[in-house]
Specification:
Radius of gyration: 27 Å
Distance between the termini: 68 Å
Mean pLDDT: 80
GO cellular component, one term: membrane
Number of domains: 2
Strand order of the largest sheet: 1-2
Pfam families: SLC35F (PF06027)
GO molecular function: transmembrane transporter activity
Low-confidence stretches: 1-53, 398-402
Helix content: over 70%
Order of helices and strands: HEEHHHHHHHHHHHHHHHH
Number of strands: 2
Subcellular location: Membrane
Largest sheet: 2 strands, antiparallel
Keywords: Membrane, Transmembrane, Transmembrane helix, Transport
Amino acid sequence: MVATAAAAASAELPIGVAATNSVDDPAVRVDSKSPTIIAPEAIADDSSERTQKKSFFGFYTSKRFWITLVIGQFLALCITSTNTFTTLLFQAGTSFPAFQTFINYCLLNLCYTSFTIYKEGFKGWLRIIWKDGWKYFILAFFDVEGNYFVVLAYRYTTILSAELINFWAIVVVVILSFFLLRVRYHWSQIVGILVCCAGMGVLIGSDKLQGGDFHSGADVLKGDLFMLLGATFYGFSNVTEEFFVSKTPLYVVIGQLGFWGMCINGVQAAIFDRTSIANAVWDGKVAGYLVGYNLVLFIFYTVTPVLFRLSSAAFFNISLLTANFWGLIIGIRVFGYKVHYLYPVAFVLIMVGLIVYYIMDASGIGDDSVKPWLGENQEGGHEGIGTAKRRMRTRVGRGVGAGADP
């Protein structure tokens, strides 16, 4: 009778689930509402499915997601602040594109090169210069020229027009990451980027509908071309820096960027900005703008590499698209801009795009912080703040990487 009952129960089991030999087996659960026997494998599969659904939505409430999102918006506010200070300097009769950022590179060099020498020793720092100096020189060149042409663009165009063109850096980053770093984008990341760009399109359209003046600068075409060139250099700089910080401690990369940037920018300022410096208006207001600009930029350069580790250069650049919205909020108070009803719509679109970009991570298909050029287990990468390698070690219970360099 027991065997017959077991055989009958077996017929009710779904295909692929084996029946047990005894209904008294504690591993088998009998449903109280029906005589169907539910196998433990089916229970595990059902539990796994519920966990997967929970983890999908749980990712968007996770600490990692919100830290990444908040850092991105913090950097967008920083870039908006530097753009505002640049515009204020120009309105005060002061414009020296190279010298303006030279102070920032000096600060970066003073802080992070000193820390590098403290950690690695002076001979260790010289070895970095000898072995990898040429790589960091290229990174610094891209970054210096990006800053130079973006600041120069504000001589000829408006803050809003200049910020609208900055999205070109996204295109450059995606293309370079695909071909040089072997990054393969998930469909959700492509859709997220496109949604963010659609939000940018709404910004441009709303300005046109409002009758915004894109031609209030001295020479808008020249200014926009300078901004496109600067955005291109920024794209190269972002991809290069993401590669370096994934393999090297942050203080080494930022210190080298500051050192070589100071050298390149110093020479450039001496050649191109001598007349501008001599003719500039020097007063307390200009000094305040310069201090504010360089302090914000110093913070920006310190935090940006962490976001490169947590996410990617592509996410970094689409996060900066909201700088247009924050720029408008500041412009209302400082420059007398007016808000069109489509601006909040554009902001929401960009934020939705940022969320869509992370569907891949939420669904467990991939991890944006895992860099394909470092190997499957990130064995070629550095274990530091924000890296996937440190998170992997934490998951397997081998410690949290305490004592590892950032």
